Amino acid sequence: MINYLFSDLDGTLLNSQGTVSPQTVQAVRKSGLPMTLVSARAPIEMRGAIQALGLTGPQIGFNGGLIFEYRQNQVQALQAAPLEQALALQVLDFIKATAPTVSLSCYTQSEWLTEKVDAGTRAEEQLTRQIATPIASYAAQFSQHPAAIFKIMIMTLDNQVMATLATALKQMVGSSASVKLSGQTYLEVTSAQAQKSRGIAFIKERFHLTTGELAAFGDGENDLPMLKAVGLPIVMGNADPTIQQYGQHVTKCNDEDGVAYALEHLIGR
């Protein structure tokens, strides 16, 4: 019996316009099951979906790097695993030097920062309805305004550049950080402890749930730890076949309300 739901956002719960469709909202509410969003996004970028679905419990951001609740419209951290600061700045410098054409930015708990507002940044602003804060220098910013860095985000439409950079970053950080693709155009660097499965374990312990009571929806490489941590993994129809193989079921695409379809046809109570 499924008693708890987990869902990725981009490419999963959200459609191509970056919103939760009325059909999906209705299906989630009709299910009567509690849901935790498990996303690479920052809390500020998750808020719209949280409010649309009427969620009040713990949510998981930054691929598991931050477990939080909104209390009185403020983010309250329940568990945090930011990047080690010196390593984060080293990674940012490395990307600027070796892949200057990519769109590069980073996130603290409450801010989205970039040295270069470009086409990638503007596209992300349209998708998430958040505005990036331009800064002169990452090093100067964090020297003058200390804050934990939870995620470094790289965006590019050049698959070869993405693949080359992903390999180089994984070699560079080793086991000190996590480097994962999120969809086909995003590469994200987070703490090694920032795994979606970490958030699942937190929820299981808090609400005394078993693995068999959990279902999860996802579409990307960064969703695999989450999908492997639940009893009923469901993968979106728009996911790459290499990701679909990890699903007990493959539902419809995100633009076809795949989560709603799964709730109505694939999940039994």
TrEMBL record:
GO molecular function list: magnesium ion binding; phosphatase activity
Gene Ontology cellular component annotations, sorted alphabetically:
cytosol
PROSITE patterns documented for this protein? COF_1 (PS01228), COF_2 (PS01229)
Q: List UniProt keywords, sorted A-Z.
A: Hydrolase
Q: Which InterPro entries does the protein's record reference?
A: Cof, HAD-like_sf, HAD-SF_hydro_IIB, HAD_sf
Top-level lineage group: Bacteria
The keyword Cell division is assigned to this record: no
Q: Identify the Gene3D superfamilies for this entry.
A: 3.30.1240.10, HAD superfamily/HAD-like
| Transmembrane intervals | none
The residues forming the signal peptide are: none
What CDD domains would the database entry show?
HAD_Pase (cd07516)
Q: Per its record, how is this protein called by name?
A: Cof-type HAD-IIB family hydrolase
**Origin species:** Lactiplantibacillus paraplantarum
